[in-house]
Amino acid sequence: MVVTKSLAKTASQSALNQSVQFLKGVGPKRSEIFTKLGIDTIRDVLFYFPRDYKDRTRIQRISEAKIGAEITIQGRVLGIQTRMARSRKSILEIFVGDGTGAIAATWFNQPFLANKFHVGDMVFLHGKVGAYKYLQLLGPEYEVIRENEIDVKEGSVVPVYSLTEHMSQTHFRKIMKMAVHQFAGHIEEILPKEITKKNQLVSINDAVRNIHFPGTFENLEHARCRLIYEELFILELAMALRRRGIKEETGISFKIGANVDTHIRNLIPFALTNAQERVINEITEDMRSSKPMNRLLQGDVGSGKTVVAIYAILAAIANGYQVAFMTPTEILAKQHFQTIQKYLEHSHVRIQLLTGDTNSRQKKDNLDQIKTGQIDLIIGTHALIEETVQFRQLGLVVIDEQHKFGVVQRLKLKKKGLRPDVLIMTATPIPRTLSLTLFGDLDISMLDEMPPGRSPVRTIWVTQDKEKNAYGFIKGEIAKGRQVFIVYPLVEESESFDLKSAVTEARRLQADVFPTLRVGLLHGQMKQAEKDKVMMDFKEKRYDILVSTVIIEVGIDIPNATVMVIVHAERFGLSQLHQLRGRIGRGNEQSYCLLFGNPNSNVSAERLKIMTRTHDGFKIAEMDFRLRGPGEFFGTRQHGLPELKISDLMKDFSILKKARDDAFELVSEDPQLTMVTHLKIRQKVLETFKDRLELINV
Ligand code: ADP
Ligand code: MG
C-alpha cells in the first residue's frame, strides 16, 4: 500500500536510504519540496521531527462548555454563514455539533476562511467560550479532518512540522504516517545494549514511531528522552574520543620547582588571589605532566587572567621552551605586549610582537629570530598561524579570548610545536552547559574571585528623558580628571534603522554637548594604524571621551576610564553588555555604566534590568544563553558543534550530564570503540564529526 510491492517486501536498512521519491505521494515534484526541507532519503523523513504537537487528549463535550473556559471540541460542521456587521466587518460563523450540543465558531474579517469548511466536515476547535446570542468560540484554532485521512484514527497527540508553504501539515502528516508505518520497524539500533538498558531507553524504532505519532504525552516523553540521549551521547563520545586522543599523546614534562616558582613570584607586584593560586596550581600540574595540557581558563573581565598566563609563560621559558601568545586583535596584542613587557622588565626574557602590520623587513628578521630560538615569547594576532612562522622549540601556546578563534585555528597553532601545552583564556564566561559540550575536550579552570580593592561598577538604566542629566554627570566626572567611553551599535547612519551611529554622534557630541572637551572616535572601518593611534591617544589622556563602536569590546585596559555609556543598549546581547562594562572599573575610582536604552520588547527590557542587578559574569552568561539560545550565543559552527536536531542544551541538561558520563566511561573501557558492540556507534560518531573535531587515531 505504501511503496512498490517489491520494495515493501525487502524494506530494510537499504530501503531507508532510498530516495524519498519511493514513498507514495512523493513524486519528483514533491521531492523538490522535501529537498528544501533537507530531506533526501526515507531515513531523513523519519528523522524529520515535529516542532510541536496538538493536544487532542482532552476533547470535551460541547454540552460541558462553560463561558470563559478554554475548550477543545470535536464535531461536525452543521452550517456555515457569512454576514456583514453594522461596522461593515464581515463575520464568518460555522456551527458545529457533537451530539451533545452545538456551538458557533466566529471569525471577523476573514471571509476567505469560509472556503476551508464544508457542511459535514469533521473539525477540531480550540478556543475560549463566549456567548453572543448563543455559545461561541471567537477566532478559535481549528483543524478540518477529511474522512479519508488517517488522522482521524490516529490518537490524540498530533504532530506539527516546520514546513514550507507548498506543503500542508495534513499532507505531510499523511506521508509521514505511511513512512512510519512502513519503515519505522527497520531503523538500526546504534546504542550499545548496556546503555539503553542502564538508562531505560525505548528502542530507536519505538522512539521514531512515537516522536511522530505518540498517542499519549507519556509515550512522547519516552521517545524524546531516547532521541535526545542519542544525540547528546554521540556528541559527548566525540568529545571523549578527542580528549582521550590528546591524553594519550606524550607532550612536554616541564620542571617547575621551588626555584622557578620563587623566581616568577618575584616578578609579580601583588599578592595573588586565592582563585589565582588555585588556577596556577592546576596549570603547573598540567605542565609537569607528560600529557599535553589542554586547559580553558575562564575568568570575568578584570579577574586577573594575564598574570596567571605570565606564570605559565615564565615556567615554560625557564624550561628552555618558546611560547606563542595569540590574541584576536592587534590592539590587544600590543596591550598584552606592553603589560607583559612591564612585568618582565627585570628578567632576561626576550619578547617580541608580531602583527599583520609589522613591516616586511622587520618581519623577516623577527621570523628568523623565532626560528633560531633567539626569541622566547612571541605575542601576536592570527599572524602567528601563518606558515612562515616557525619555532625552534614551541612549548606553550596561550590563546586569549578563545571564542573568537575556532577549533581549527587552535589546532593549526598547536601543530607548530611538538605537542605543546595549550592554555586558552576567555573573558566571556561560558555557561557550564556549553563548556561541557563545546569545550568537552578541555579541562576548565575558573577565576571566580576579583582582586581586592575593587568596587563593582554601578550600572544605571537611563531612559530618554534623563539623557541630559547623564551628560551633566559625565561632565562632572571628566572635571575630576576621569575619562569616558560612549559606545554605539553602528559605524554610520543607516537608513533602515533609526539608530544613532558613532560617526555622526561623535560630531554632534563634540559640537553641541561637549564643546570644550576632547572627543575621539574609534570604529571598525578605520585603518589599523588609525585605530591604534586613537586608542593610544585615549590611553594617554589626549581625549576625554572616546566615541566608539563595539570594537573596544575585548580586553582594553584603561584604568582612568570610569564611565561607560552604551547607547541603544537594547540592541546588545547581555554578554556583550557585560563585556563592555568590563572595560571600566579597572582602577580604584568608583565607575559607572550608563545604559541608554528604550527597549521595545520584554526580552530587551529584561536584559537591561539584569545588567543593573548583577555583576557576576557567569550568571549573566547563563541568562544570556537562556534568552538567546545556544545558536546565537556565539556562532556555533566555528566551534565544531553540530546543529542539534532535538536537544536543547539548557532544558535537557540532566540528560546531557548522563550522556556525558556514559560516553566518557565507554571510551575509557574501549578507547577506540573497536569492540563489536560499539562499531555502529563509532561509525555514527565518525560520520557526524570527522571533519570538525579531528578525531585523533580513530
Ligand atoms: P583580565 O585579563 O582577567 O581581564 P587582568 O589580568 O588584565 O584581568 O587584570 C586586571 C587588573 O587587575 C590588572 O591591572 C592587574 O594588574 C590587576 N590584578 C590582577 N591580579 C591582581 C591581584 N591579585 N591583586 C591586585 N591586582 C591584581
Ligand atoms: Mg585580559
From TrEMBL:
SUPFAM superfamilies: Nucleic acid-binding proteins, P-loop containing nucleoside triphosphate hydrolases
Membrane-traversing stretches: none
Domain Helicase C-terminal positions: 466-626
EC class: isomerase
Family stated for the protein in its record: Belongs to the helicase family. RecG subfamily.
Stated role: Plays a critical role in recombination and DNA repair. Helps process Holliday junction intermediates to mature products by catalyzing branch migration. Has replication fork regression activity, unwinds stalled or blocked replication forks to make a HJ that can be resolved. Has a DNA unwinding activity characteristic of a DNA helicase with 3'-5' polarity.
Name of the protein described by the UniProt record: ATP-dependent DNA helicase RecG
Classification lineage: Bacteria, Pseudomonadati, Planctomycetota, Candidatus Brocadiia, Candidatus Brocadiales
